Amino acid sequence: MYARNLGLEWGDHTCILAAQNGHLNTLKYAHEQGCPWNENTCKVAAAAGHVNTLKFAHEHGCPWDEGTCENASGFGQVDTLKYAHEQGCPWDENTCKFAAAHGHINTLKFAHEHGCPWNEGTCEMAAGMGHTNCLKYAHEQGCPWGLDTCKIAAANGQLNTLKYAHENGCPWDRGTCDMAAMSGQINTLRYAHENGCEWTANTTELATLSGNLGVLQYACQNGCPWNLDMSTLKFLNATHTGMYRYAMVDEEAYG
Fold first, then answer.
1. What is residue 1's three-state secondary structure?
2. pTM of the model
3. Position 226 confidence tier, pLDDT thresholds 50, 70, 90
4. CA–CA distance from 8 to each of 2, 5, 16, 155, 192 (Å)?
5. Apex CA 152: angle with CA 215 and CA 112, to 5°?
6. CB atoms within 10 A of CB 107
């Protein structure tokens, strides 16, 4: 109020900050004095779990969109998600995806049980971020998954979600080994290989490019082909001397 009385300008960031911090009186004053607001006001209120500020904003014409539910869900705020949904705020697949990505089983359950759509992205995010509980719930409730679920888990080194997915019928292909190798994730690469996941020379090529000698050694020593050519050797000599020495000394590395 003091700043306003001095004639200082304000913008939509004023309402955003008030909503984000749950300062309802400040938000009321700003709105009554003509301060602009937009969808971000509702988004930050939802993310922070401030039902009162979200309710005030909505009841006084502040716009909202799918981002309100996405933020509530992604930050595990069931109360603001519930309010927004009951008041007709739109949601889409990202609501479930964001909940799964951040491990918020409570908002994931609420969204699904109240008809929020989901797709393979829910399982992919749960697997990639290591949230087995969300992955398990989604799978048991019929959420689709595909090759990318295992790929993302492998790439991020999430052994537990990779195990769960594979043991419960999630498909994988050589891309799982490729992603593990490219990201230097020896544990998920080992698990995938030991459980029958295909690999090819592309796996060792990606391990080479990643500069992870341990991953490359594991792959080569366990029968993964490695197609060395002069350009690859030059690349290794210039960038990864440890790999270059390994390539030159260990004949088995040639596959």
1. coil
2. 0.89
3. confident
4. 9, 7, 17, 50, 61
5. 155
6. 27
